Amino acid sequence: MVNVMNVWKHYGTKPVVDDVSISIPKGKITTFIGPNGAGKSTLLSMISRLITKDDGEVRIENQEIGHWKTEELSKKISILKQSNHIHLRLTVRELISFGRFPYSRGRLTEEDEDKIEQALEFVALQDMQDKYLDQLSGGQRQRAYIAMVIAQDTEYVLLDEPLNNLDMNHSVQVMKTLSRLVRELGKTVVLVVHDINFASCYSDYIVAMKEGRIVEEGSTEKMIEPEVLNSIYDMDIDIHTINNQKICVYFQ
Amino acid sequence: MLFKRKIDLLLVLVIVLVAVFLFTGISSNWDYILPRRAVKMVAIIVTGAAIAFSTVIFQTITTNRILTPSILGLDSMYLLVQTGVVFWLGSGSIAMMNSHVNYLVSVGAMIVFSFLLFKWLFRRGENVYLLLLVGLILGTFFSSMSSFMQILIDPNEFLIVQDRMFASFNNVNTELLWVSIIIMGVAFLIYFPNHKYMDVISLGKDHAVNLGVPYEKIVQRLLVIVAILIAVATALVGPVTFLGLLVVNLAHEFIKTFRHNYLIVVSILFSVIALAGSQLIVERVFTFSTTISVLINFVGGIYFIYLLLKENKAW
Amino acid sequence: MIFMKTRYTLLALTLLSFLSLFVGVSELSVPDLFRLTPEQKEILVISRLPRLTSILIAGASISICGLIMQQLTRNKFVSPTTAGTFDSARLGVLISLLVFTSASPLVKIGVAFIFALLGTFLFMQILERIQFKDTIFIPLVGLMFGNIISSISTFFALKYDLVQNMSSWLHGDFSMIMEGRFEMLYLSIPLLALAFFYANQFTLAGMGEDFAKNLGLNYTQVVNIGLAIVAMITASVVLTVGMIPFLGLIVPNIVTYYYGDHLKKSLVQTAIFGAGFVLICDIIGRVIIFPYEISISLTMGVIGSGIFIYLLMRRRRSYAI
Question: Where would one find the signal peptide in this protein (chain A) (predicted)?
Answer without folding.
Answer: none
